[in-house]
Write a structure and sequence with these properties.
Elements (H helix, E strand, L loop, with lengths): L1 E3 L5 H12 L4 E5 L2 H4 L7 E4 L5 H8 L4 E3 L3 E2 L2 E2 L19 E4 L5 H13 L1 E4 L11 H13 L7 E4 L7 H12 L4 E4 L2 H10 L4 H15 L9 H6 L6 H7 L5
Parallel strand pairs: 1-2, 1-4, 2-3, 7-9, 8-10
Antiparallel strand pairs: 5-6
Helix pairs in contact: 1-5, 6-10, 7-8
Protein backbone atom coordinates (compact mmCIF):
# COMPACT_ATOMS: atom_id res chain seq x y z
CA UNK A 1 0.00 0.00 0.00
CA UNK A 2 1.15 3.57 -0.78
CA UNK A 3 0.84 6.40 1.74
CA UNK A 4 0.20 9.88 0.29
CA UNK A 5 1.09 12.61 2.78
CA UNK A 6 -0.07 16.17 2.33
CA UNK A 7 -3.11 14.84 0.50
CA UNK A 8 -4.96 18.15 0.76
CA UNK A 9 -2.05 20.17 -0.64
CA UNK A 10 -1.77 21.22 -4.27
CA UNK A 11 0.77 18.53 -5.13
CA UNK A 12 -0.46 15.79 -2.82
CA UNK A 13 -4.04 16.23 -4.02
CA UNK A 14 -2.97 15.78 -7.65
CA UNK A 15 -0.83 12.73 -6.86
CA UNK A 16 -3.70 11.17 -4.91
CA UNK A 17 -6.17 11.87 -7.71
CA UNK A 18 -4.01 10.32 -10.41
CA UNK A 19 -2.76 7.33 -8.44
CA UNK A 20 -6.23 6.40 -7.19
CA UNK A 21 -7.68 6.75 -10.70
CA UNK A 22 -4.99 4.33 -11.88
CA UNK A 23 -6.35 1.74 -9.44
CA UNK A 24 -3.48 1.56 -6.99
CA UNK A 25 -4.13 0.84 -3.32
CA UNK A 26 -3.43 4.03 -1.40
CA UNK A 27 -3.93 5.61 2.00
CA UNK A 28 -4.31 9.40 2.13
CA UNK A 29 -2.96 11.33 5.11
CA UNK A 30 -4.73 14.51 6.20
CA UNK A 31 -4.19 16.94 9.05
CA UNK A 32 -7.82 17.14 10.15
CA UNK A 33 -11.17 15.43 9.87
CA UNK A 34 -12.44 18.40 7.87
CA UNK A 35 -9.78 17.77 5.22
CA UNK A 36 -10.61 14.06 5.11
CA UNK A 37 -13.91 14.99 3.43
CA UNK A 38 -11.87 16.02 0.35
CA UNK A 39 -10.65 12.46 -0.29
CA UNK A 40 -11.75 10.73 -3.48
CA UNK A 41 -14.43 8.10 -3.03
CA UNK A 42 -13.09 4.72 -1.96
CA UNK A 43 -9.70 5.99 -0.76
CA UNK A 44 -8.59 4.91 2.71
CA UNK A 45 -7.82 7.94 4.89
CA UNK A 46 -5.91 8.66 8.08
CA UNK A 47 -5.24 11.78 10.15
CA UNK A 48 -1.58 12.53 10.79
CA UNK A 49 -0.28 15.15 13.22
CA UNK A 50 3.50 15.30 12.95
CA UNK A 51 3.63 16.62 16.52
CA UNK A 52 2.12 13.30 17.60
CA UNK A 53 4.38 10.41 16.52
CA UNK A 54 1.71 7.87 17.41
CA UNK A 55 -0.49 9.13 14.55
CA UNK A 56 2.36 8.66 12.09
CA UNK A 57 3.03 5.14 13.35
CA UNK A 58 -0.60 4.24 12.76
CA UNK A 59 -0.51 5.77 9.29
CA UNK A 60 2.56 3.71 8.36
CA UNK A 61 1.04 0.38 9.38
CA UNK A 62 1.06 -1.88 6.30
CA UNK A 63 2.72 0.76 4.09
CA UNK A 64 5.63 -0.11 1.82
CA UNK A 65 5.88 3.10 -0.21
CA UNK A 66 5.46 6.78 0.75
CA UNK A 67 4.89 10.03 -1.08
CA UNK A 68 6.26 12.74 1.17
CA UNK A 69 6.19 16.41 0.25
CA UNK A 70 8.01 19.34 1.75
CA UNK A 71 8.65 22.88 0.61
CA UNK A 72 11.69 25.07 0.35
CA UNK A 73 11.77 27.72 -2.33
CA UNK A 74 9.40 25.79 -4.50
CA UNK A 75 11.52 22.64 -4.15
CA UNK A 76 9.25 19.67 -3.44
CA UNK A 77 10.53 16.20 -2.64
CA UNK A 78 8.72 12.96 -3.10
CA UNK A 79 10.11 9.61 -2.30
CA UNK A 80 9.77 5.89 -2.41
CA UNK A 81 9.98 4.76 1.22
CA UNK A 82 11.73 8.04 1.61
CA UNK A 83 14.63 9.52 3.50
CA UNK A 84 16.75 12.66 3.07
CA UNK A 85 19.84 12.07 0.97
CA UNK A 86 22.13 12.47 3.98
CA UNK A 87 19.98 10.65 6.50
CA UNK A 88 21.63 8.24 8.88
CA UNK A 89 18.75 5.78 8.43
CA UNK A 90 20.20 2.78 6.64
CA UNK A 91 18.55 0.59 4.07
CA UNK A 92 15.77 2.97 3.09
CA UNK A 93 15.26 3.51 -0.64
CA UNK A 94 14.46 6.99 -1.93
CA UNK A 95 13.76 9.03 -5.04
CA UNK A 96 13.66 12.82 -5.20
CA UNK A 97 11.32 14.81 -7.42
CA UNK A 98 12.24 18.48 -7.71
CA UNK A 99 9.63 20.49 -9.60
CA UNK A 100 10.17 24.09 -10.59
CA UNK A 101 7.48 26.76 -10.04
CA UNK A 102 3.96 25.61 -10.90
CA UNK A 103 1.87 27.03 -13.72
CA UNK A 104 -1.17 26.73 -11.46
CA UNK A 105 0.33 29.38 -9.17
CA UNK A 106 -0.98 31.86 -11.71
CA UNK A 107 -4.49 30.73 -10.78
CA UNK A 108 -3.84 30.56 -7.04
CA UNK A 109 -2.15 33.92 -6.64
CA UNK A 110 -3.12 36.05 -9.63
CA UNK A 111 -6.52 35.02 -10.99
CA UNK A 112 -8.38 37.64 -8.92
CA UNK A 113 -6.46 40.62 -10.32
CA UNK A 114 -6.49 39.15 -13.81
CA UNK A 115 -10.29 38.87 -13.68
CA UNK A 116 -10.82 42.36 -12.27
CA UNK A 117 -7.89 44.36 -13.67
CA UNK A 118 -6.56 42.23 -16.56
CA UNK A 119 -3.27 42.58 -14.69
CA UNK A 120 -0.97 40.60 -12.44
CA UNK A 121 2.01 41.78 -10.41
CA UNK A 122 5.46 40.58 -9.42
CA UNK A 123 9.06 41.64 -8.95
CA UNK A 124 10.89 39.13 -11.12
CA UNK A 125 11.42 41.68 -13.95
CA UNK A 126 12.37 39.79 -17.12
CA UNK A 127 13.54 36.66 -15.34
CA UNK A 128 12.43 33.44 -16.99
CA UNK A 129 11.07 30.37 -15.20
CA UNK A 130 10.62 26.90 -16.68
CA UNK A 131 7.29 26.42 -14.92
CA UNK A 132 5.75 22.98 -14.77
CA UNK A 133 2.08 22.05 -14.88
CA UNK A 134 1.20 20.47 -11.56
CA UNK A 135 -0.54 17.66 -13.45
CA UNK A 136 2.83 16.61 -14.86
CA UNK A 137 4.30 16.63 -11.37
CA UNK A 138 1.51 14.31 -10.26
CA UNK A 139 2.06 11.99 -13.22
CA UNK A 140 5.79 11.84 -12.53
CA UNK A 141 5.17 10.98 -8.88
CA UNK A 142 2.80 8.17 -9.86
CA UNK A 143 5.46 6.67 -12.13
CA UNK A 144 8.10 6.83 -9.42
CA UNK A 145 5.79 5.37 -6.78
CA UNK A 146 4.49 2.49 -8.88
CA UNK A 147 7.39 1.48 -11.14
CA UNK A 148 10.80 -0.04 -10.52
CA UNK A 149 14.03 1.58 -11.62
CA UNK A 150 13.87 4.93 -9.82
CA UNK A 151 15.61 4.17 -6.52
CA UNK A 152 18.42 6.59 -5.68
CA UNK A 153 17.58 8.97 -8.54
CA UNK A 154 16.80 12.67 -8.51
CA UNK A 155 14.55 14.15 -11.19
CA UNK A 156 14.33 17.86 -11.97
CA UNK A 157 10.84 18.57 -13.28
CA UNK A 158 10.21 21.56 -15.55
CA UNK A 159 7.96 22.63 -18.36
CA UNK A 160 9.09 22.63 -22.00
CA UNK A 161 10.25 26.27 -22.01
CA UNK A 162 11.36 29.06 -19.70
CA UNK A 163 9.05 32.07 -19.84
CA UNK A 164 9.13 35.55 -18.37
CA UNK A 165 5.98 36.96 -16.80
CA UNK A 166 5.58 39.23 -19.80
CA UNK A 167 5.64 36.19 -22.10
CA UNK A 168 3.13 34.40 -19.87
CA UNK A 169 0.90 37.48 -20.06
CA UNK A 170 1.09 37.42 -23.86
CA UNK A 171 0.00 33.76 -23.92
CA UNK A 172 -2.88 34.47 -21.56
CA UNK A 173 -3.90 37.43 -23.74
CA UNK A 174 -4.01 35.24 -26.83
CA UNK A 175 -6.00 32.48 -25.13
CA UNK A 176 -8.43 34.74 -23.27
CA UNK A 177 -8.99 37.13 -26.15
CA UNK A 178 -8.21 40.27 -24.14
CA UNK A 179 -5.01 42.04 -23.14
CA UNK A 180 -3.44 40.78 -19.92
CA UNK A 181 -0.58 42.86 -18.54
CA UNK A 182 2.27 42.03 -16.21
CA UNK A 183 3.33 44.91 -13.97
CA UNK A 184 6.77 44.64 -12.41
CA UNK A 185 7.19 46.19 -8.96
CA UNK A 186 10.37 47.01 -7.03
CA UNK A 187 10.92 44.37 -4.35
CA UNK A 188 10.19 46.77 -1.47
CA UNK A 189 6.93 47.84 -3.07
CA UNK A 190 6.02 44.23 -3.77
CA UNK A 191 6.61 43.31 -0.14
CA UNK A 192 4.46 46.18 1.11
CA UNK A 193 1.68 45.12 -1.24
CA UNK A 194 1.87 41.57 0.12
CA UNK A 195 1.80 42.76 3.71
CA UNK A 196 -1.10 45.07 2.91
CA UNK A 197 -3.01 42.09 1.52
CA UNK A 198 -2.58 40.27 4.83
CA UNK A 199 0.38 38.05 3.95
CA UNK A 200 2.42 37.18 7.07
CA UNK A 201 5.84 38.82 7.00
CA UNK A 202 7.73 35.52 6.99
CA UNK A 203 5.74 34.45 3.93
CA UNK A 204 6.18 37.81 2.22
CA UNK A 205 9.95 37.58 2.75
CA UNK A 206 9.94 34.11 1.20
CA UNK A 207 8.03 35.33 -1.85
CA UNK A 208 10.44 38.25 -2.31
CA UNK A 209 13.40 35.86 -2.09
CA UNK A 210 11.77 33.60 -4.66
CA UNK A 211 11.13 36.55 -6.98
CA UNK A 212 14.82 37.45 -6.68
CA UNK A 213 15.76 33.90 -7.66
CA UNK A 214 13.52 34.19 -10.71
CA UNK A 215 14.81 37.66 -11.55
CA UNK A 216 18.39 36.40 -11.52
CA UNK A 217 17.61 33.46 -13.82
CA UNK A 218 17.99 30.83 -11.12
CA UNK A 219 14.91 28.88 -12.24
CA UNK A 220 15.29 29.07 -16.01
CA UNK A 221 16.86 25.69 -16.74
CA UNK A 222 14.76 23.35 -18.87
CA UNK A 223 15.12 19.69 -17.90
CA UNK A 224 14.36 16.64 -20.07
CA UNK A 225 13.32 14.55 -17.04
CA UNK A 226 9.54 14.81 -17.53
CA UNK A 227 9.85 13.48 -21.06
CA UNK A 228 12.12 10.68 -19.83
CA UNK A 229 9.67 9.72 -17.10
CA UNK A 230 6.40 10.07 -19.00
CA UNK A 231 7.45 9.35 -22.58
CA UNK A 232 5.91 12.61 -23.82
CA UNK A 233 6.58 16.32 -23.85
CA UNK A 234 5.60 18.24 -20.72
CA UNK A 235 2.42 20.32 -20.84
CA UNK A 236 3.07 23.71 -22.44
CA UNK A 237 1.93 27.01 -20.96
CA UNK A 238 -0.49 27.48 -23.85
CA UNK A 239 -2.28 24.24 -22.92
CA UNK A 240 -2.37 25.21 -19.26
CA UNK A 241 -3.91 28.57 -20.20
CA UNK A 242 -6.59 26.92 -22.31
CA UNK A 243 -7.43 24.37 -19.64
CA UNK A 244 -7.73 26.99 -16.87
CA UNK A 245 -9.19 29.84 -18.92
CA UNK A 246 -12.42 29.87 -16.91
CA UNK A 247 -10.46 30.89 -13.80
CA UNK A 248 -9.39 34.14 -15.43
Amino acid sequence: MILITGASGNVGREVLKQISQAGHKVRAAYQSSQKVAEAPAGVETVIVDFNRPDTLRAALNGINCIFWSGRSRQIWSSSKARRPRRSNVAGVEWTFLRPNGFMQNMVIYNSATVRVQNTFYGSSAGGKVSQIDIRDTGAAAVRVLTEDGHVGKTYTLTGPAALSNAEAAAILSSVLGREIRYVNLPPDQMKQALLGAGTPEWNANGIIDLEALYREGGASTVSPDIERLLGRKPIAYEQFARDYASNF
